[in-house]
Inverse folding.
């Protein structure tokens, strides 16, 4: 028998922007429990963004970038009669945000800039312009779901 679901932890909004989304992003960005370092990296990246993109505030650029990277559908494997099918499923809102953040951070870490601040700023700006590795991952996920749309009647 399964245990009960884990309770959702209440996040405290960050001090600079007052956003729970920023806190959640920094928690994903953090390595080895170094939250202050993660916040410093994020805030420096936001400063970098505000210098490069002048039309909107850096927080609006970050939110739009994250929205552009979040997937709407994904494929899940399901074994039916000895064959494994990739079945498209809509993504829950909470999981959409989580996947978008993880893809953006992963893509930022693989970039070729010198510091993590520059890498993160570059990836956020790329997501804002609907380009970059994280956006490409979303597009690939959507293409995979579209290609396997014929198996959507197997959804449970």
């Amino acid at each position: 028998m399964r245990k009960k679901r884990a309770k959702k932890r209440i996040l405290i909004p960050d001090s600079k922007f007052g956003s729970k989304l920023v806190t959640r992003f920094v928690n994903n960005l953090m390595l080895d429990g170094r939250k202050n370092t993660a916040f410093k990296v994020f805030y420096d990246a936001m400063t970098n963004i505000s210098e490069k993109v002048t039309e909107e505030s850096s927080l609006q650029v970050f939110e739009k970038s994250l929205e552009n990277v979040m997937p709407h559908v994904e494929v899940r494997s399901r074994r039916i009669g000895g064959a494994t099918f990739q079945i498209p499923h809509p993504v829950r809102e909470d999981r959409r945000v989580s996947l978008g953040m993880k893809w953006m951070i992963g893509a930022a870490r693989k970039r070729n800039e010198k510091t993590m601040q520059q890498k993160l700023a570059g990836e956020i700006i790329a997501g804002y312009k609907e380009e970059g590795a994280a956006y490409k991952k979303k597009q690939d996920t959507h293409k995979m779901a579209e290609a396997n749309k014929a198996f959507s009647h197997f959804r449970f």
Remarks:
- The chain has a mean pLDDT of 91.
- The helical segments are 20-29, 35-52, 58-69, 93-109, 116-128, 133-147.
